[in-house]
Specification:
Layout: H1 11-34, H2 42-66, H3 70-94, H4 98-103, H5 106-134
Helix pairs in contact: 1-2, 1-3, 1-5, 2-3, 3-5
Length: about 140
């Protein structure tokens, strides 16, 4: 049984709250991963390691408790199509070595940051409207 939040806010206002929370969380994860540029690749490695582990744990927990895999994927896949590539791109930026950092051109780096941000905005819109509506 899904968790239901009681609120005096309208559906549109709740969607805005969900959007901001989801987008902020995803941006923080991506900034943490990109900080690997300066912190010996450790943050990017942690995001590469922890994100799939958490997803797998939640998937297994859902499967054991409900016996349904399709419903979980039905809720997860619409926004994951955009969110996972953005996180992987952030991790790849954070995994650049010392030599690679010199080769990162500012325009390409800014384009990648813009692309990551756009993917996360799309993912947050889908997650706050479609995915939450499916639960």
């Amino acid at each position: 049984m899904p968790f239901v939040i009681q609120s005096n806010l309208s559906d549109f206002e709740m969607q805005k709250v969900y959007f901001l929370k989801i987008f902020t969380n995803n941006i923080l994860v991506c900034v943490f991963a990109i900080s690997g540029l300066f912190l010996f690749r450790i943050p990017a490695f942690l995001v590469y390691l922890i994100n799939p582990l958490v997803l797998g744990f939640i998937l297994a927990l859902n499967w054991v408790s409900t016996g349904e895999l399709i419903y979980f994927l039905y809720i997860l896949l619409p926004h994951s199509v955009f969110e996972i590539p953005a996180i992987v791109m952030s991790c790849s930026l954070g995994m650049k070595g010392k030599r690679d950092r010199r080769e990162i051109k500012q325009k390409i780096f800014l384009f990648e940051l813009l692309l990551i941000t756009m993917l996360l905005i799309i993912a947050a819109i889908i997650e706050s409207t479609v995915s939450i509506g499916l639960t």
